[in-house]
Amino acid sequence: MFRKLFAAAAICLVSTAALAQFGNGGTPFHLVAANTNNSTLVAKGTHVVTSVQLGGVGSAPAYLKIYDKATAPTCGTDTPIATLIIPAASTAANGGGSNVAYGDTGLLVVNGLGICVVTGIADNDNTAVAAATFVVNVNFK
Questions:
Q1: Which residues contact 12 (CB under 8 A, 6 or more apart)?
Q2: Is domain 27-140 classified as CATH 1.20.1280?
Q3: Which contiguous run of DSSP H or E holds residue 21?
Q4: Please, what are the averages of pLDDT over each run of 10 residues along the chain (141 residues)?
Q5: What distance in Å separates the CA atoms of residue 113 and residue 115, rounded to the nearest whole number?
Q6: CA distance linking residue 48 with residue 24, whole number of Å
Q7: pTM (2 decimals)?
Q8: Residue 111 near residue 69, CB atoms below 8 Å
């Protein structure tokens, strides 16, 4: 699918996938992690995660776990469909971070988009992070 964009006598064809990548109708979700496992149902139903931005000022990494669930995930019990690292900061002043772009196809969830932010990489980890140390931004359609 292509849409025509008109700009000063020039015609550009841009794919709808490219438009979606730059927020055409996408929904942002923002979380500053609390001193919990941050179990959150971001949205019910079928969605596609298009990108994730992660950052932190902690001296140890944390992990964003993504779930395909219709309810808030039970961190440490439910199995994530993706686990992303929130890197440790070289110094608290500099912070650490990463960006994940899932491309044209995205990361599909059918039941709902759930997340947890914890300190351990194992699927069964349920360890709370320190408050106001990690930030998560998820863009989805």
A1: 4, 5
A2: no
A3: helix 16-21
A4: 38 41 72 98 97 94 98 98 93 80 88 98 98 96 94
A5: 7
A6: 13
A7: 0.81
A8: yes
